[in-house]
Design brief:
heterotrimer; A mainly alpha (about 300); B alpha/beta (about 425); C mainly alpha (about 350); B: about 425 residues; nine-stranded mixed sheet; six-stranded mixed sheet; 15 helices; 17 strands; about 20% strand; elongated; C: two-stranded antiparallel ribbon; two-stranded antiparallel ribbon; about 70% helix
Amino acid sequence: MDIFIQQLINGVTLGSVYAVVALGYTMVYGIIQLINFAHGEVVMIGAMVAFSVITALAPGGWPPLMVVAAGTIVAIPVCMAIGYGLERAAYRPLRNAPRLAPLISAIGMSIILQHLALLVWSRNFIAFPQIIKSEPYHVGGAIITNVQIAIIATSVAMMAGLALMVYRTRLGTAMRATAQNPHVAGLMGVDINRIIAVTFLIAAALAAVAGVMVGSYYGIAHYQMGSLLGLKAFSAAVLGGIGNLPGAMLGGVLLGVVEALGAGYIGDFTNNWFGSNYQDVFAFMVLIAVLVFRPTGLLGERVGDRT
Amino acid sequence: MKHSKLALTLIAAAIGLIGCGEEKKPEPPKVEAPKPPPPPPSIEIKIGSVAPLTGGIAHLGKDNENGVRLAVDEANAAKIKIDGKDAKFVMMGEDDQADPKVGTTVAQKLVDAKVAGVVGHLNSGTSIPASSIYNGAGIPVISGSATNPKLTEQGFKVQFRVVGRDDQQGPAIASYLATNAKPKVVAVIDDATAYGEGLANEVEKTLTAAKIKVLPREKGTDKTTDWKAVLTKVKGKRPDAIFYGGMDATGGPLMKQGRELGIKAVFAFGDGACTDEMSKLAGDAAEGLLCSQAGIPVKAASQKFLDAYKKAFNVDPILYAPFTYDAANMLIDAMKKANSADPAKYLPELAKLSFIGATGKIEFDEKGDRKDAEMTIFTMRGGKIEPIAIIKGGNSMTVDEYLKMAAPGAPAEAPKPAAEAPKPAAAAAKDEAKK
Amino acid sequence: MKGRNPPLIWVGAGLVAFALLALPFALAQVGTAWVRITNFAILYVLLALGLNIVVGFAGLLDLGYIAFYALGAYVYALLASPHFNLHLPFWLILPFGALVACLFGVLLGAPTLKLRGDYLAIVTLGFGEIIRIFLNNLARPVNITNGPQGVSRIDPFRLGGFDFGKSETLFGLAFSAPIKYYYFLLAVMIVVIVITIRLQNSRIGRAWEAVREDETAARAMGIDTTNIKLLAFAIGASFGGLAGGMFSAIQGFISPESFVLVESIMVVSMVVLGGMGNVWGVILGAVLLSFAPEVLRYTVEPVQKSLFGRSLVEPEVIRMLLFGLAMVLIMRFRPAGLLPSAVRKRELAERKE
């Protein structure tokens, strides 16, 4: 049983990271029905920038938390600038083009971002300085570390903050209006371009935080780390119902748990015919199954089928 | 009609010229064309060197190429005569980008250029497809770094290697683990790459043969950073030791997360994770790990080679340079013995050569593998990996004993203190070497 | 073009044919390596032509196309290598590989084709990864694919006593292995081009076009849209499988690392760059991008060395940056590609109004 609890803890931690990244996909998709294929790359850049800052500050003798916070504070504006740039350069000019055009453009952008990161941070795996000591706490035979608690808490807090912003502020109202019908929202005096740009900025800021979380939790970053993470987070967003904020959170956590339990138990259930080697398959299977059988996802209330 | 072909030939020739103009001087088309008599006749002998010179392991590729270059330069300085003519050795360095497709293309380029022999490739994944091209052309090829057993299992007479195979390294670390840690249950994990899985299979074989229980294989990928699910499952089966076949970039997080989960088992790794980088990635958790490297530690290579390398390139050799150096020297030595640079003539000499090089005594078995290749076992102490044992011919000995016994080629080095830390660069740079 | 000065066209066609036939010997003068590079370029042309049917004709973005290439390659490798000790003749297993790829194309297509364009793209991407992960892991408990170790010593094409893997001299000309494969690939490519063009101008081709432009309208016109899309997937996949089988035979060794996501994206960018829907544009795109690394290696490196004394940016990185940039810029400024198809050009003109 303690093993089962441990797998749940593993899954929820991993899932919280997916959830924060999934929020970014779901916000952008909700507002302009575009899969921001380069979102995973923004997460990667966030991790890389944080790496540079943390490495520079680590020998300074500051408290570790402050160093990580500084890394996050620098990573956020960098990622926001990239998110804004993506929207302006690759997506906005194609807003009225056929559906595939912005997707192809996004793939191109993701290749460009990866290789620019390669040029800046090299193509090697880069190791974060180990400044935070992980403190284990025992919960019913399982172990949860302070870093894991911090990750879960941060993502819950970001989710809550985002929900407040979307459902309680003028900006949020404008965003929801644009998501429902950009033309009418425009007629009502909403500056559509501004709202879309803001959405990208918020998504990028979330990505930056996710990047710092991934980087400092696993202690490692790589210029290609964003693509698989992005795909899984996108699957999580689809699972929860794309365009739906609580859905993204739920989908993320569920996917994390599915992966952990899958890797942990599929071998026992299939007499070791399948094992942890198929861990990455689960996300794609979930994605395909949801899209085929329930395209609205778990919490999706509407299918925004506009072309 | 004639014109179009001529034009094409010209265009193609122009492309080729641009291509060749970069690294080598223009060479006369025929290698062994006898020159007019008065000046002492000379022949030009081309030796190919293939390694990734761009990409993630370009530094290792450069290291390999430097080893060959050093051997070639020394051979030229020694004014070797072959078949009564002054031999002028020329190294042709090619970049295979660690990509199998490019690997076959550059192999073809070397065959086109009529090289007498090739040292390379660095990776097994490029060496295997390329070897059939060399075999078709009858050109001897020696790898100083490809460790996949399959390379020499293809039955090609021209393929040799001077580095130990995965199925020599796997048993070495496994038997060291078995005799020193005395585990009852071992978990074997790999990264689902040709290298990681191959090594893990060999370890599993040896452990099973030693009547040690091995848990069902767990796998990640060469980019996995979250090992918690796998480790949690493994923890439930209470292993005494965990072996991971994979690189340091994934092995570091694996070990760190294992300790975070409270796993007390001994962690053991192959050469891909036998680097100082492990302590950066896993912090204090990396202390006490066991790992193995094919061959002897770089610092145990002959002092003469180490000095010459340092003098020639102003850096220390990283990893496989002593092996590629030996490989190139063996080609040259076989040519001397056969008194010919014709592959067909010197190949039999190469196969039966007994050679003392920078990495010790080298002889090939019937497959072209090195007989009795050495393996070194390291442990992590104070953030650095340290050699603790050298395994040769099934016997384990400490580094001091080895240096006393072998002192290959340079007796003067024997008294050298063995406690000196291994070169950090050596290990740190191994990242991704085996992909 | 038809009926306009036919003799001149025939002369032109003759010249092109002669150039294509003489090309490998001209290249072999420089080095057989260039024949090999050309062979790989033809393989990419085949892949791009296959993907073009899905993306260009039917308008379905497939990001996992390389999976079909992998399937074809593995079918060939497993049935003609010492791995299972099977050595079936190539004329049997090459079409069989195409058939298997085709079947998988239908299997993937059937449940997913009702999805909207961008969802479909992501699902196909997932499918491509799933196939690769399975190929990488089907080594235990029963060894089918030999996992990451790959399959080696794959048979070359053999027909009677004629072995594509060996060099021989015919009519006083030296035919090395790559030259033999070149002619085979050339023949296959011409057949595939003819099939593609015939398809494009057939009822099916027009149906694809209709579906691409407006699926609802197409359905209203009585087109069975699901079947017609499935057909595009099946044909595209079988071209991929065919190319895969030939790749296997030429390389003699394959492993899952040759079939990664980047390869899929590379083929997509070939199609996009050249011009979705236009056969000649797609060929141009494939040729340009597959020779790009060679050209870059011989231009970028020396230029950098002379400017900075060392190589700062590797050609491979520049190539990838160019890929990405091409995809962004083409979508922005020339969405129909370098050589747009007539229909696409017309649509664009209409949209501008």
